[in-house]
Design brief:
alpha/beta, Molybdenum Cofactor Biosythetic Enzyme, Chain A, about 40% helix, 2 domains, about 240 residues, homodimer, three-stranded antiparallel sheet, elongated, Alpha-Beta Plaits
Chain lengths: ~240, ~240
């Protein structure tokens, strides 16, 4: 059975302007690979209602799980929850259980649950909450879309809350062999290995270090024994 | 006149598997912002012909310039050039000027221009070459799509070759003000500033440091004087 598929949707002008470098995609990619869920696509869009709605619609149709990052805080530029609700044509309003979580949190810290903070309790109808052990304000899952915060510590915690609830596949195993030769010298033998081991994926990732070219050859697959055979062949062709 | 728009398309299984963290998007985002070209969307897709073709078609229609990264080397998994040619329904073959560049390069280094390396001279009909001062093998521009290498040093050099050929807009200016208070306390005054300065964009980016919440407030716009007025107002409301 093929592995479940996923897509990541990063929401935020700060990524597109180059102000902030997205860290959440790389984290999620590693977690999904371990879980045997294939990340098929990533999109980054701006804090724009239409752009978010269009991306949620397209991705939620294309893959089994969509993970979003960003735009669920209390400020005026946090429009993700409303956009996701619109994508699924659902009403959205402050929900009692989410409000209670926030109320208890701000009571503990002696802060006021003001109108801005209360926006973080706006949840589309029919969604389930995603636990946020870092800063309380919950994410939510609606249909196959998991809506999470952009702050990396909170995003990572929410990923940890969601992942155990998903059915995983066979984890993708991967082995890397570093070769101190340019890709042009590797291409032909690599193509032969790729053809022989069609059930595995053979990738070549060139690098340049101290003026010399080299390549990391990565073989991926779900069958550890096959991976071993292919790696042995590779090391035979390109000894250390 | 609104600024020209752009999209970035990153091609590579190694990003989606979490093996490699993409660095090229962040670099391009900063360069485009300086040049006054608005990066509207980023997509990451796998080394899959259909996925690349679909993304090139969608993005090249949606924005003024598409920049791609990855998949133009000599190995079997480098399929970007063929996919981009297919997206525009153009034939692709080894081109004499690209072959001459490679021939001279490998002659200098005493290496053979073998069949694998010659694949890097495959250029879709009607494209113009993008200079690669780092490792010679050229990128190319076809229609509004700029096809570049994935290795960051080569990608950055190609970006530097392409950017001066593009018409820029008014550079986006940005000022940041760091406030040691949670977003929930900032939201209302920020929304007022955002409403008053509708020609600017006001963003709030929360962080957590040493157990305390704070937020970087970023105001962006093309009019330096307006930006100054808005920043003065902001600092008035939230003194250092």
């Amino acid at each position: 059975m093929p592995n479940p598929t996923a897509a990541m949707l990063v929401i935020g002008d700060e990524i597109l302007s180059g102000r902030t470098r997205d860290a959440n995609t790389h984290h999620l990619a590693g977690v999904l690979t371990e879980r045997g869920i294939d990340l098929k696509e990533v999109r980054v869009v701006s804090d724009d209602h239409g752009a978010i709605v269009a991306a949620v619609k397209a991705l939620s149709k294309a893959v089994d799980h969509v993970f979003t990052s960003g735009g669920i805080g209390p400020t005026h530029d946090d429009i993700t929850a409303d956009a996701v609700a619109a994508a699924f044509d659902r009403p959205i309003d402050v929900r009692d259980d989410a409000r209670a979580l926030l109320q208890a949190h701000y009571d503990r810290s002696g802060q006021e649950l003001n109108a801005a903070r209360l926006r973080m309790a706006r949840i589309p109808e029919g969604a389930t909450l995603i636990d946020n052990p870092v800063s309380t304000a919950p994410g939510f899952t609606i249909e196959n879309v998991h809506v999470m915060a952009g702050v990396p510590s909170v995003f990572n915690a929410m990923v940890q809350s969601v992942i155990p609830t998903l059915t995983g596949g066979a984890p993708m195993l991967s082995e890397t062999w570093r070769v101190q030769r340019g890709e042009g010298d590797l291409a032909e033998p690599l193509a032969l290995i790729a053809a022989e081991f069609a059930d595995l994926s053979v990738g070549s990732y060139p690098f340049q270090k101290d003026g010399r070219y080299g390549s990391n050859i990565v073989i991926r697959g779900q069958d550890a024994a096959r991976l071993d055979v292919a790696m042995a062949k590779l090391k035979d062709i390109f000894p250390a």
